[in-house]
Design goal:
Strand content of chain A: under 5%
Order of helices and strands of chain A: HHHHHHHHH
Oligomer: heterodimer
Shape of chain B: globular
Radius of gyration of chain B: 23 Å
Number of helices of chain B: 18
Structural class of chain B: mainly alpha
Largest sheet of chain B: none
Largest sheet of chain A: none
Distance between the termini of chain A: 10 Å
Radius of gyration of chain A: 19 Å
Number of helices of chain A: 9
Helix content of chain A: 55-70%
Number of strands of chain B: 0
C-alpha cells in the first residue's frame, strides 16, 4: 500500500511537470503529435525507472559520507564524495539514454526520426535529474526509489500525451498569430496546472 | 417585429464593405442575428440546411434551462439571509428583494465585463461576436457565492474570457470550460473570499442569530467525526448535519434530505437546488442541446465511488450514503450545465461515457480525500476537460482499428 501511495503521489500530487514545472523543454517541444509524445513519454518512464534506483545505489555505496565503509578500508570510510553527486547522476542518466536511443533506433526507426534531437536530450531533461535528487532528498530506500522513478515517469508521460492531444485538437482553433506555437502551449500548460491543482493537498 | 427588421435593414449598408461604419460590422451582425435568423441561406445546389437552430438559438436554450435555477437561487439567497438573521418567517417578497439586490449586480457585472471584452476582440480580430458568452455570462454568476465583491466577478470574467476563450480563438475552440475557469481563478487568487463562510449574505453590521455557522452541507459532512459509543457510521453525517444547525432559530431541519434536494441550503447562487438543476437538465436533454450520456455516466461515477467508500467506511464522510453526494454542493449544477459544455467535453460518443464517469468518480474522490477542497466538482470537470482530447484521440484510434480489421476481412 505504501508503494502504491508513492506512485499515486508522484503521478498526480507531485507531478514533475505541473507541480515542479520540470522537464519543460521536451514537454513543450515534442508534444505536437500524440504518437511521438507517446514514444518520448515511454522512453522517459523507462529511463526514470532505471536511473533512480541505480543512482540510489551510487548514492548509498559511493557518494554519501561514510558510504565507502563497505570496502573495509579505514581511510575510505571517512571520505565524503557527495560533491560528485551531479556529475555521477548525469553520467548514469546519459548512459541509460544512450541505451534507449540504440534500442529505439533498432526497433522503430520512424519514431527515432520523429523524436530527433529530443531523444538524446532526455539526458539533460531536468525531470530526470530532478527525480534522482528528490529521491536523495526524500530518503527513499531501494524499492521505494524504483516506484518513485516509475511514478515520476508516468506523471510526465500522462502530462505530455494529454498536452499532445490538446495540441492536435488545437489545429482547428483560431489562435491569434502572436500566440501561435509555443505561446499558446505555455498558456495551455498553465491551465493544465490549474486543473491538476485538484490533487494538491491530498494526504496519503 | 417587422419595424425592427426594417430599421436594421436600413442601417445595413453603413456597416457593409465600403460603408462608413465598416469596422463595426460584427457588432451590427451580432445585433441582427440575435434578433432574427441570419439572412443568408444555403445555396440552391448541394446540401440544404433545414433546421432553424443555430448557435445563438442553442445557447439561448441553455440560458432558458438555467432560469429555474436562477429564480430559485434568488429566493434562496434571501431565504438564507433571513435565516442567518433569525427571522425565518420573513415575507416571500422580502426574500426575493434581498436576493435580487445581491444577485442582479453580479449578473450585470458579469455580462458587462465579458461583453466589453467580447466586443473589443470582435472588432480587433474581425470575427463575429461569440454567442458562447450568452451562456458563460449567466453561468458565472450562478457559481459565485452571493456575497462576492463585484470587482472580483469582473476580474474573473475578464480573465476567463481572454485567457481561456479568446486566446484560443473564441467560441467552440477553447479547451477548458470558461465559466468554471473563472470560478477556479477566483478560488486560487482570492481564497478567503470564496471559501469558508461566504455562502450566506449577511450585512457587515448585522447581528446573526445565536449558533449561526454558515457552513455548507459538504463542509459539515467533511468534518463529521466518529464518537465513542455514538450511533453507527452511516448516521453520523446526518447527525452532524442536524447538530450543526440544531441551535439556530427556525433552521433545525435545514440539512434534511428534502431540503438538500430542494436547495434551501447555503451555497453558490445557482448550485444549491438539485431539483432545479434536474428541471434544467431535462430541458437540455429533450431539446438535444446537452448530452444525456455525460449526465447519466457522471451520476453513475459518483455513485460507484461513493459505494466504494461505503465499503471502507473509515470516516463518517466515507460511510455517508452515496446518493447524498448528488444533492450536496454543486454536483447537480456542475454535471448538468458545466460538464456537458459541448466544446470542452469529449466529442465522441464512447468518450462521453468515459468522460462523465470519471468526472463523477473524481468529484467524490476529491470531496472525501482532499482536505484542501470541500467541493470537488469544479476541479474534477476542469481536469477531465484537460483529458477529454486524449480520450477522444484513443476512441477514434480504436474505431479506426476496428474498421480496418473489418475492411481486410
Amino acid at each position: 500500500m505504501e508503494y502504491v501511495n508513492i506512485v499515486v503521489r508522484s503521478v498526480f500530487i507531485e507531478n514533475m511537470v505541473f507541480a515542479y514545472f520540470l522537464g519543460m523543454c521536451s514537454y513543450l517541444a515534442v508534444s505536437k503529435k500524440v504518437s511521438t509524445a507517446m514514444g518520448l513519454g515511454l522512453a522517459v518512464i523507462f529511463v526514470l525507472t532505471m536511473t533512480v534506483p541505480i543512482n540510489y545505489g551510487i548514492q548509498k555505496f559511493v557518494l554519501e559520507e561514510g558510504a565507502l565503509s563497505w570496502t573495509g578500508v579505514e581511510a575510505l570510510a571517512a571520505v565524503d564524495l557527495s560533491f560528485l553527486q551531479f556529475i555521477m547522476f548525469i553520467a548514469v542518466i546519459a548512459s541509460m539514454v544512450q541505451l534507449v536511443e540504440m534500442v529505439i533506433e533498432k526497433v522503430s526507426p520512424a519514431l527515432y526520426g520523429s523524436l530527433g534531437i529530443f531523444l538524446p536530450l532526455i539526458a539533460v531533461n531536468c525531470a530526470i535529474l530532478g527525480s534522482s535528487l528528490f529521491m536523495v532528498q526524500k530518503e527513499f530506500d531501494f524499492v521505494e526509489s524504483v516506484f518513485f522513478g516509475f511514478g515520476s515517469g508516468v506523471g510526465f508521460w500522462l502530462a505530455i500525451i494529454a498536452l499532445a492531444a490538446i495540441r492536435e485538437k488545437l489545429q482547428y482553433s483560431n489562435v491569434p498569430a502572436p500566440l501561435k506555437g509555443l505561446g499558446i502551449t505555455f498558456i495551455i500548460t498553465g491551465l493544465m496546472g490549474l486543473a491538476f491543482m485538484s490533487f494538491m493537498g491530498i494526504k496519503l | 417585429m417587422k419595424f425592427l427588421h426594417t430599421i436594421l435593414e436600413k442601417q445595413k449598408p453603413n456597416f457593409e464593405k465600403g460603408g462608413k461604419l465598416e469596422r463595426y460590422y460584427y457588432l451590427f451582425e451580432a445585433a441582427e442575428t440575435f434578433a432574427f435568423t441570419p439572412p443568408t441561406t444555403t445555396g440552391k445546389k448541394g446540401v440544404q440546411v433545414r433546421d432553424a437552430i443555430d448557435l445563438k438559438r442553442m445557447m439561448m436554450t441553455v440560458v432558458l434551462a438555467m432560469i429555474p435555477a436562477l429564480i430559485y437561487g434568488i429566493w434562496n439567497v434571501g431565504h438564507q439571509h433571513f435565516l442567518a438573521l433569525g427571522q425565518p418567517n420573513a415575507e416571500l417578497i422580502d426574500k426575493v428583494l434581498i436576493g435580487l439586490q445581491q444577485t442582479l449586480p453580479i449578473i450585470l457585472v458579469s455580462y458587462t465585463a465579458g461583453g466589453i471584452v467580447e466586443v473589443i476582440f470582435a472588432i480587433i480580430r474581425k470575427h463575429p461576436i461569440n454567442e458562447g458568452f450568452l451562456v458563460t455570462g449567466m453561468l458565472i454568476p450562478l457559481v459565485m457565492p452571493p456575497a462576492i465583491p463585484l470587482w472580483q466577478v469582473a476580474l474573473a470574467t475578464v480573465f476567463a474570457v481572454v485567457i481561456v476563450k479568446e486566446a484560443f480563438g473564441g467560441t467552440g475552440m477553447n479547451i477548458l470550460n470558461v465559466a468554471l475557469t473563472a470560478r477556479a481563478f477566483l478560488y486560487f487568487a482570492y481564497p478567503s473570499d470564496i471559501s469558508g463562510e461566504v455562502w450566506t449574505y449577511v450585512p457587515k453590521d448585522a447581528a446573526t442569530v445565536e449558533g449561526y455557522s454558515g457552513a455548507t452541507a459538504l463542509a459539515v459532512a467533511a468534518e463529521a467525526k466518529f464518537e465513542e459509543g455514538a450511533a453507527g457510521a452511516t448516521e453520523r453525517v446526518s447527525e452532524a448535519l442536524t447538530a450543526s444547525v440544531a441551535n439556530w432559530n427556525g433552521a433545525e431541519s435545514m440539512f434534511s434530505e428534502f431540503n438538500m434536494f430542494m436547495g434551501a441550503i447555503p451555497g453558490s447562487i445557482g448550485e444549491t437546488s438539485a431539483l432545479m438543476c434536474l428541471i434544467g437538465g431535462l430541458i437540455l436533454i429533450f431539446t438535444g442541446v446537452a448530452s444525456w450520456k455525460i449526465m447519466v455516466s457522471g451520476v453513475i461515477g459518483a455513485l460507484v465511488m461513493g459505494g466504494i467508500f461505503n465499503l471502507f467506511g473509515a470516516t463518517p464522510f466515507m460511510a455517508m450514503p452515496a446518493w447524498y453526494h448528488l444533492i450536496m454542493g454543486g454536483f447537480a449544477f456542475g454535471i448538468v450545465f458545466m460538464a456537458t459544455d459541448p466544446v470542452s467535453a469529449s466529442h465522441t460518443e464512447t468518450g462521453k461515457w468515459i468522460y462523465g464517469f470519471l468526472i463523477g468518480l473524481l468529484t467524490v474522490l476529491i470531496r472525501v480525500f482532499n482536505p484542501a477542497y470541500p467541493e470537488g466538482i469544479m476541479l474534477a470537470i476542469l481536469l477531465m476537460n484537460v483529458f477529454a482530447p486524449l480520450i477522444d484521440f484513443y476512441v477514434i484510434e480504436g474505431n479506426k482499428k476496428r474498421r480496418l480489421k473489418r475492411a481486410t476481412l
